[in-house]
Design goal:
Layout (H helix, E strand, L loop, with lengths): L1 H14 L4 E2 L14 H14 L2 E2 L3 H8 L9 H9 L5 E4 L10 E4 L4 E4 L12 H15 L3 H17 L21
Parallel strand pairs: 1-2, 2-3
Antiparallel strand pairs: 3-4, 4-5
Helix pairs in contact: 1-2, 5-6
Length: 181
């Protein structure tokens, strides 16, 4: 709700560190996860504070009213989100048909990031995992394009190893690259 989102924004204003905002506001099944007031806090307080914002296609629609139905419309979505004030936007195209193409945008440069589409229903948590992996790579010292590219490799491996748990969409599995040893 708006109170919790506002408390998060207040804390972020105090710490002065890079911020990855994954606007978890619409689930993969299409369920709305935030109240309308919380969406406004995202738009006007959290996203402008973001080093990078990482919405999926349904979240883009909820935040900007831009409807994306193909890869060609990722640019319009990225521009609409960028207008809200973040330093970078990563529009995740996993909900589109075909290659899982994402678009990273900083207001000038666009980096198209095609990814392997893996035929599995077990993708629960992949957006949060991607945002966390980006944050980890930024903390490690990567620039944004390198952080996003490394995070996509990590999440692709996790999707590949996803597994059924319960009766719904299973989670992506923890994945580590093979050791050189």
């Amino acid at each position: 709700d708006a109170e919790i989102a506002g408390a998060v924004a207040d804390e972020l204003d105090q710490i002065g560190l890079p911020v990855v905002v994954d606007p978890v506001c619409v689930s993969t099944t299409g369920a709305t996860l935030l109240t309308p007031g919380a969406l406004d806090v995202y738009r006007f307080r959290l996203i402008p504070r973001a080093t990078v914002v990482t919405p999926n296609i349904p979240e883009v629609r909820a935040l900007t009213d831009v409807d994306v139905s193909d890869v060609g419309q990722l640019r319009e979505a990225a521009a609409a989100l960028f207008a809200l004030g973040p330093q970078w936007v990563l529009v995740k195209g996993g909900h589109l048909d075909g290659v899982a193409t994402d678009l990273l945008y900083d207001g000038v440069d666009e980096i198209v990031l095609p990814g392997e589409r893996i035929d599995t229903p077990h993708t629960h948590g992949t957006g949060c995992t991607l945002a966390s992996a980006i944050a980890a790579r930024l903390a490690h010292g990567d620039d944004m394009p390198a952080a996003v590219a490394a995070a996509k490799v990590f999440v692709t491996g996790a999707i590949r190893r996803g597994y059924p748990l319960g009766s719904g969409v299973g989670p992506a599995a923890q994945w580590l690259p093979p050791s050189d040893e």
